[in-house]
Amino acid sequence: MERIESISFMLKRRSKVDSITCLNVMSDKHLLIVMRVCMKGFKIDFSTGLHIDLDDWDSSTQRVKPSCDTAEQINEGLKMTKLVFKSCVRLFDREGVDPNKRELTEEYRRMSREFGRVLSTDKAVVDNEGERLKDRSDRFWNSLDQFRSENNVLREWGEATREKFHSLKTHMEAFEQMKRESNKKFALTFEFFTKEGLDEYCQYVQDHFNLRNVTMMKHLDFLRWFLRWALSVDKNHNIAFESYRPHLRCNQRRVISLGVDELQRIANLQFASDNQEENVAFEHARDVFLFMCLTGLRYSDVYNLNHCDLVAPNGMAITTIKTNDNLNINLNKFAWAILKKYEKAGLPDGKALPVTSNQKLNEHIHKLCRMAGITQPTRMVYYKGAKRYDEIKPKCDWISSKIGRKTFVCIALSLGIDRDTIMKWTGHKDYKSMDPYVDIVDSHKQKAMKLFDQLNLWNIGKDDDPDKK
After folding, report:
1. What is the pLDDT averaged over residues 214-229?
2. Could you check whether the bond before residue 313 is cis, i.e. omega within 30 degrees of 0?
3. Residues paired with 25 in a beta bridge
């Protein structure tokens, strides 16, 4: 996409002969809308096939004015025209081809014809189209299987990604079966996924599988991933999914973490149950969880941590399981003390810590936090469709192994450690991924605001100074 410098829309005015004066005059009616594409090295003008009067055109937005009766249809057509061209360029990019003006024009016209055919295709099935529909349905399902098998190898998918695409296929199979209850000849195809088709599919999946809006949006991202791949290998010619944006309310998930005082309470827990085996299990879970809070490691990386990953003097070098990042992490004295505690414990396979299954660890973490008195009511807000849900539970019930990493980042920020250093430890790729953590570190924000108090702008009386009251 870097080769596209700009895409703009303009009106092509044309002259006509005045019936009275017999002179050429410029017409302001029924003007053709032209898409001008500026590429590196050349520019091309494409006819959109759409017309509008000059008075109904807004040159600043390059769109039809809302007051025009046909504004919605024409503006949607301009958006889709732009998407068709971007998809055309994307095909060349994936093939590693630098197209000339003629090649680009021909490919754009071909994709425009295909897209026009898709829009005009009736999704209902008539008797004499049965065989053609079956071919299109086979192409859809075979493409999905090919996409999963190829990308699983090429992209080295983890178990979580494989499971997401398994769910995608399961949901689409269930949707197809539901549609066949009212139309026995229905079959899912690429052509089905127009805006209307996507609306119907998303509504079914969210209602039938009881998905939250955030989960539904993620599911839709995986569907787009597949459809975009199918477009790149010329299996799919329907690009309606590129502009599809369902109106689902999604709030940013609240970041829950533990404070230093809460970590101290967990660290100072004493286990005096008559069941010695249970005491040991709680002690192991407590140490593993504290280690995660003090290093920012995910459960998968703590589970995989081996004595050979530890480097002198006080650090560790690991390759993360989830993202395959090579990280060199410095260890504070508390994290190092936990490792030393199990150095000669004789754990199997050279493991550095006594890590159980994630499910069992989370069960113990809930109980540890409850024992430490971390039980204040905590609210989580989410949406399903247009309905808001407020779920309030004791904080201990929200705490799991995932909170260890979040706690590490929040405490590091509150200590004034810069984001770049934290990102080198945790493997976060950009500042945006750190923003949710920065927003909740109130003590860090309060400390930063205190820097303004050092400015000698004017004299402030004691009654006006909040710190003197």
Report:
1. 94
2. yes
3. 16
Whole-number Å distance between alpha carbons of 388 and 165: 28
Record the tokens describing residue 220, joined without a space. Answer: 């839709």
C-beta of residue 413 within 8 angstroms of C-beta of residue 444: yes
- Whether the CB-CB separation of 189 and 178 falls below 8 Å is answered with no
CA 417, 419, 424, 425 dihedral sign is positive
Report the chain's terminal Cα–Cα distance, integer Å: 59
| Nearest-angstrom CA–CA distance, 386 and 144 | 31
Contact 403, 423 (CB under 8 A): no
Yes or no: say if 191 and 104 are a contact pair by the CB < 8 Å rule: no
How sure is the predictor about 439, in pLDDT bands with cuts at 50, 70 and 90?
A: low
Q: What is the pLDDT of residues 248-278, one digit of tens each?
A: 888 777 788 998 899 999 999 999 888 999 9
| φ, ψ dihedrals at 330, nearest 5° | -75, 145
d(CA 189, CA 176): 10
Q: In what order do the strands lie in the sheet containing 31-39?
A: 4-12, 31-39, 42-52
126, pLDDT greater than 50: no
Q: Which residue has the higher pLDDT, 262 or 240?
A: 262
Count of other CB atoms within 10 angstroms of residue 30: 10
Residue with token string 């017409």:
27
Contact predicate 410/440, CB 8 Å: yes
**Residue 419 — φ and ψ, nearest 5°?**
-65, -35
Q: What is the pLDDT of residues 277-287, one digit of tens each?
A: 999 999 999 99
